[in-house]
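Quick one, T. Sequence first:
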Amino acid sequence: MSALRQVLTPENFAKIQPGMMMETVRKMLGKPMKITPYALKNTLHYDWRYMDGPNESDKKIFTVVFDSDLRVLSTGSVADLTFKGHCPPHPLIHSRQGIQHGHQSSRRGRRL
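Structure tokens:
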């Protein structure tokens, strides 16, 4: 049996570059926990969950976005807000200025 090593690290995530093929990313990081297709944007999002410290609150999600040719478009990490004891964020509000966090708006565009 070969030695186990942690591959889901910020150092390995930094090696994922735009234009890289999906097969290469899979060899580097292993099987993602979640794959989400976005048909309208013609992209595919692969998500991996990892720990960025010793505490439960240090859970993060690393996402790789692939184009229709299965080449990396972008990457990013965000806090994993699904762990126990954390309140989910407020729903996103879509406005003409972009996306904002906050409370749901009424039909006339006023915030509640």
